[in-house]
């Protein structure tokens, strides 16, 4: 084989290797793009990352933990008793407005509340003698509270009749929780529910489904 033929063959082999490498690089780029698209779609339409702020759900959820909430399940079924849901709380004054707040002229913002569903639509909820009663019967399965006695019944000191789309919610740390017992919060309408707490993603030692 002549020297020119050898060089030609080497050039062809090098070109083929370069072509294969480019295909692999393009394949990797497409793979990463598809993964990013899937993650975006999941976070935008199915789930959403949120962060626990405060101690109202101790010991189930702690301040600073990161969660993924399920935003799609309640399109197919109603919330169930003891689900942990996320909904906007009462509007609060913005103390340190950011550029977007100033641009939009916002002076208030509604923080996300994370609470547990206790009373379901159509039920009557009352807290007496430190216990939760549903339709005048003690809720025996209510084992999630950090204490088994509720010192502050709030508006539920009297029977609270829930409308057909309303849910009565409590925090697990009831001595400090600001929830449906308080008139400013009250029962939560189904249309206000953003989603259900699904997975805890931080800290990694506690990664997993939240109940």
Provide an overview of this structure.
With about 210 residues, this protein is of the alpha+beta class. The chain has a domain of about 120 residues: Umud Fragment, subunit A (Ribbon). It is built from two helices and 14 strands; from the N terminus they run αββββαββββββββββ. The strands form three sheets. Strands 1, 2, 3, 6, 11, 12, 13 and 14 form an eight-stranded antiparallel sheet that branches. The chain has a four-stranded antiparallel sheet with strand order 9-8-7-10, with no helix packed on it. It has a two-stranded antiparallel ribbon with strand order 4-5. It is elongated. The mean pLDDT is about 85.
Taking the alpha carbons of the first and last residues, their distance comes to 74 Å
- What's the total helix number? 2
Report the CATH architecture of the domain at 79-196. Answer: Ribbon
The number of E-state strands comes to: 14
Largest sheet: 8 strands, antiparallel
- What general form does the structure show? elongated
**Mean pLDDT metric:** 86
Helix content: 10-25%
Q: Over the alpha carbons, how many angstroms does the gyration radius reach?
A: 27 Å
The CATH class of the domain at 79-196 turns out to be Mainly Beta
Q: Can you say what the CATH homologous superfamily of the domain at 79-196 is? A: Umud Fragment, subunit A
Q: Pick out the low-confidence regions.
A: none
Compressed to H and E, one letter per element, the order equals: HEEEEHEEEEEEEEEE
CATH fold title of the domain at 79-196: Umud Fragment, subunit A
In terms of DSSP E residues, the strand content is 25-35%
Structure classification: alpha+beta
